[in-house]
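Hey,
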Amino acid sequence: VQLVESGGGLVQAGGSLRLSCAASGIAFSINAMGWYRQAPGKQRELVATISSGGDSTNYSDSVKGRFTISRDNAKTTMYLQMNSLKPEDTAVYYCNAEVITMTQRDLEVWGQGTLVTVSS
């Protein structure tokens, strides 16, 4: 399974962006998924996670109330709606998924990242 992010770009503070993460390939199942980000000079940090059925979500305190994570299992795509963006949200955003392969191996898969830049 491969994950490909899209939707990043340059936006002014207060604006919005919607990130997408599309999964491709063959797997037995894709379980929990999440978004992480890494700002220049900082460690990668968790932004939000979502359960396999989409009924349970978790957010970091820094984005709670501004970001919304969702997934469309029919399209094997996950989204991150980002509103009220702040300059400190500037980072490379990565999607992550727990994948169960056809041979029942449990793998953690990462996308290549998409850059979000928020100008003040």
